[in-house]
Amino acid sequence: MIVRDLNKARETDRLVKADGWDSTRLLLAGDNMGFSFHITRIAPGTSHVFHYKHHFESVYCVSGEGNIEDLATGKIHQITPGVIYALDQHDKHRLSATSELVLACSFNPPVTGQEVHREDGSYAPVAELA
Amino acid sequence: MIVRDLNKARETDRLVKADGWDSTRLLLAGDNMGFSFHITRIAPGTSHVFHYKHHFESVYCVSGEGNIEDLATGKIHQITPGVIYALDQHDKHRLSATSELVLACSFNPPVTGQEVHREDGSYAPVAELA
């Protein structure tokens, strides 16, 4: 059994900081769960384009408000606590925070912790990191 | 892209009720994400023995307080908001809520929605449901 605490994990290299967001990787590929699990915070007033070409991601809103735009269709979905979105088509999207968003994110395949966001908004597949 | 809302999902058969807990399956196997994602509520003052012999489960505490006892070792871990536990050894455990626990749960393999909790605290593997 693995037990971890977000507040302690934020003091370690599990916390990844970027411009306008950060993400704490509570479970990674090395934990052998078959998925990874992250708590991500989006700063209020910021927007970000992500495109996980090689991963399926679901995002559950724990707190905060914002919206997600499906960049293939232009459709905008409001995000409030209790809303989940799942990028089952590796959907390219723009995520915007009105107030600070706290999001619980699951990834399949699991993120290894070695990925970097590329200019196209994707994470590289594991094979390209080897 | 799939978008769902917990409050709406609770009015559908995505909500499964049991004695002392309920669980709303926001993502199931049929969503083809490779994991399922549930928001589970444990009633205050209740304890439950679970043993997912055929699934890996991670549980992130969104709100509430309680504890988890590893029934193999007797070790008890406190659960507060921000704590995650991952049953990477299919650990048999007792989950107890002091106040209402709201938990974000990821399962691999994904739950189909057809499982029932068996007397031994497990979910049947998919093969046994066929």
Automatic annotation (TrEMBL), chains A, B:
EC numbers: 4.2.1.108
Catalytic reactions of this protein: (2S)-4-acetamido-2-aminobutanoate = L-ectoine + H2O
Organism listed in the record: Paracoccus aestuariivivens
Keyword Cell membrane: no
Protein's GO biological process: ectoine biosynthetic process
Keyword set, alphabetical order: Lyase
Protein known as: L-ectoine synthase
Gene: ectC
SUPFAM superfamilies the UniProt entry points to: RmlC-like cupins (SSF51182)
Molecular function as annotated in GO: ectoine synthase activity
Protein's job: Catalyzes the circularization of gamma-N-acetyl-alpha,gamma-diaminobutyric acid (ADABA) to ectoine (1,4,5,6-tetrahydro-2-methyl-4-pyrimidine carboxylic acid), which is an excellent osmoprotectant.
Keyword Repeat listed: no
Pathway assignment: Amine and polyamine biosynthesis; ectoine biosynthesis; L-ectoine from L-aspartate 4-semialdehyde: step 3/3
Primary enzyme class: lyase
Family: Belongs to the ectoine synthase family.
